[in-house]
Specification:
The chain is α+β, with helices and mostly antiparallel strands. Helices cover about 35% and strands about 40% of the residues. The C terminus is likely disordered.
């Protein structure tokens, strides 16, 4: 086998390994619908949930010096006859809520 063939085979093996690793990483992520379900179930332990949403693609998030792959979503709770919208970031690998905060801290919608 000559040097050119060896380089081609080694390069092909590297690319194949890289793509297989990328596929494995993607398979390990939980689906966004499952992440939303986890957040809703935890939230419903204390509040009535009146709406929710989640982006279907994960995105990077840096928090406390760590980098996460997260799904960005929102949930609206009903509390004392008011609708309070929250946004959240949930880890795309574990379903753990990384951050949650009021969507509009100074704005609360009351029920009619």
């Amino acid at each position: 086998m000559n040097k050119k063939n060896t380089i081609i085979i080694a390069g092909s093996a590297f690319l194949l390994g890289y793509f297989l690793k990328q596929q494995q990483n993607e398979k390990q992520r939980i689906k966004p619908e499952k992440a939303l379900k986890i957040v809703k179930e935890n939230f419903q332990e204390n509040y009535e949930v009146s709406g929710s949403w989640i982006y279907m693609k994960s995105e990077p998030l840096q928090k406390n010096g760590l980098e996460y792959k997260v799904y960005h979503g929102g949930i609206t709770k009903q509390f004392e006859e008011q609708y309070v919208p929250y946004e959240f970031y949930v880890d795309a690998l574990t379903g753990t809520v990384i951050d949650m905060f009021p969507q509009h801290p100074n704005q609360v919608h009351t029920t009619a």
